[in-house]
Amino acid sequence: YGKNTIKFLRLHKEGKKQFVKEVEVCAHLRLTSPQEYLEGNNSLVIPTDTIKNIVLVLAKKNGISSLEQFAIDICHHFMTTFCQVAYVKAYVQEVPWQRLHEDGVPHIHSFICVPDGIHFCEAEQCRNGPLVVFAGIKDLKLMKTTQSGFEGFYKNEHTTLPERHDRILCGELFCKWSYGECKDFDFNCIWKKIRECILEAFAGPPDCGEYSPSYQKTVNCIQMLVLSRVPQVQIMEVVLNNTFYNVVDMKNLGLTNDKEVLVPVETPYGSCACTLGRK
């Protein structure tokens, strides 16, 4: 049991310059005895309102240097404070505020919410067990307008999809990875590096791109690049929910439409997923 969607904004000041972290936290516990379920005995139950207050107090006292460290702080507090807690899991996700810039100069106290991928993390720990930390990106929408195709696939009497050697590749990306033994990591730096790898593997070189023969191959390229460049990542899950675009037939309007006007296919949409890890 636990408390979901604990939302708050944490302000931090360094001189005149201000910093923000707006997050949503879910904190779940498993107790050493199920007596509250079986017997109605609530003597070991930590109220969910107390869980919420603890999260807010930790934000006030410790700040949020990184989402991962804050999730670790939550796990550590419940494990060291309450002997009846057998397991704790903390999920933290960030609202993507970015500092405003005017003529290249960063503003000291103004921000803009940019939906270019949401940073989230999870930390979980069993009593007398290792601390496990995951991090990830969700709601990252990506598109490339060429250098993508889908050919040579299996066909039978139910196949109506034509082969395409030049199509739009568009989708919403979810990825989640696990760290090995958590040492003194710079979680923010690692997250940014992984995001850069995702964008590079998806798009390819800026002057020519990289051909994608399928969504599946693109997912694998993302995972391989991250695992090759970020040694702290042990396992990486990637889900790519696809958005398809159809070229509008304008012959009846007396026009030739050479992939200039397209409409999205709302439903159904495709999806591919893969989990890849080190040996």
Short summary of the structure?
It holds the Pfam family Uricase. The protein is α+β, with helices and mostly antiparallel strands and 279 residues long.
How is the topology of this model organized?
Layout: E1 2-14, E2 17-31, H1 35-38, H2 48-62, H3 67-81, E3 85-94, E4 97-102, E5 105-113, E6 118-126, E7 131-144, E8 169-179, H4 187-203, H5 215-229, E9 233-247, E10 262-265, E11 271-277
| Number of DSSP E strands | 11
Instruction: Name the helix and strand elements from N-terminus to C-terminus, one letter apiece.
Output: EEHHHEEEEEEHHEEE
How would you sum up the major sheet? 9 strands, antiparallel
- What structural class do helix, strand and pairing data support? alpha+beta
Query: Shape from CA axes?
Result: globular
Average pLDDT metric: 95
Q: How many structural domains?
A: 2
Second rung of CATH, namely the architecture of the largest domain:
Roll
What percentage of the residues does DSSP assign to strands (E)? 35-45%
CATH H-tier superfamily of the largest domain: Urate Oxidase
Helix % is 10-25%
